[in-house]
Amino acid sequence: MNSRRNFVKKTVIAGAGLSFLPNMSFGSVLGDSKDKLKLAFLGVGLRGCNHLNNALHRKDIEVTAICDIDPERIKIALKMIDDAGYAKPKVFGNSDYDYRNLLELKEVDAVIIATPWLWHTRMAVDSMKAGKYTGVEVSAANTLEECWDLVNTHEETGSHLMILENVNYRRDILAVLNMVKQNVFGETIHFRCGYQHDLRGVFFNDGKTAYGKGVEFGDNGISESKWRTNHNLLRNADVYPTHGIGPIAAMCDINRGNRFLSLTSHATKSRGLHKYIVDNGGENHPNAKLNFKIGDVITSTIETSNGETIIVTHDCSSPRPYSLGFRVQGVEGLWEVDGNRIYVEGKSKPHQWDAADEWLKKYDHPLWQKYGELATGAGHGGMDFFVMNAFVESAKENIAPPMDAYDAAAWSAITPLSELSIENNGEPQDFPDFTRGTWIKRKPYNWIKDTY
Fold this sequence. Notes:
Blueprint: H1 2-12, H2 26-30, E1 37-42, H3 46-56, E2 61-67, H4 71-83, E3 90-92, H5 99-103, E4 110-113, H6 120-129, E5 133-136, H7 144-157, E6 161-163, H8 171-181, E7 188-196, H9 200-203, H10 229-234, H11 242-251, E8 260-267, H12 272-281, E9 298-304, E10 309-315, E11 327-330, E12 333-336, E13 341-344, E14 354-355, H13 356-362, H14 366-375, H15 383-397, H16 405-412, H17 414-423, E15 429-430
Parallel strand pairs: 1-2, 1-4, 2-3, 4-5, 5-6, 7-10
Antiparallel strand pairs: 7-11, 8-9, 8-15, 9-10, 11-12, 12-13, 13-14
Helix pairs in contact: 3-4, 6-7, 7-16
């Protein structure tokens, strides 16, 4: 929540846009490019402007077009671009589908999509069909049909899609991934992850302040409350799984020698959002009469073809400190993020945890060793620098990104599958094989390198 509030201060106050951070010039480190990537943004709200800010620090891109139906967000984005010394881009947003006119531009090579969730798949599909290298924010899809749309369009057009999951680049995550690849924990058997984040101040506001005030949402709200809260009202599912499952999928090579096989999900009763409305708006507020469908805590268990289990937790309606709840366990040891602790058989004292700090320092990832000083100022503790860098570098070469269309589909499929399982009293749901069998021979992405 603190990172959200700090970002809001930079983007909203007086329409001033984002201020550039000192000593940050990604292009000076990454090198200039004569053939600059021509980049467009669909959605320049808070998340879109975060990506835009990181892109504007590079010397190997040009922002050639932006699109948003909110004219205030367009003003903020244009000021950011002008302050960075870039030429004014073409502007779109006269209607919900004006983005399709943007996609017709020859001066657009790649597109970043940071819009409300229901637009992610349709925009990504249209972008790939237009031949653009496409980056889409999380989650990438809401239904199994949409998951297949992403895969089928990628295969039919040959256009690449990258799901912009920034947690895969968190410093401790990459260090633990390095440990997994170096077999520190031995053969992996079990994982835990999720999204445990008190978002009540995001789901509701007063229609004027983005976060932390009021109990309005939908047409009466602003920012994320305008669209995100309705998912909680109408769906009982893990509606936001990729921050947790993305890093775990990389550790156990999902879609590349391994795959998700089945899922079971259960939900608690729904109480937290109603209580928040009553506590902050009173029992007589109209929203206090609504029945939110989403359970306060949703627990899903996934089985993989290699015999691992993964527990995924969604918990956003209750008062609690932030945690993605990571646990990585092998036959020779494990890491748990809560408690910041590691145990490695033969290296740790018997039956005693080690503080994780020294282990994480020892296995610090090459990317963080190379770019850590720059990355720390790029948003979300530095993760956003790396996800933007991976997108731009992959797009410049027009090669498959680290997190591709098959990943976008498999990770996002947790939402509809969890919904089906909960509706059917925890009945197991089979994961579609979005790779159509090619996962058996696909080689794992080389995560342990210092480029992207």
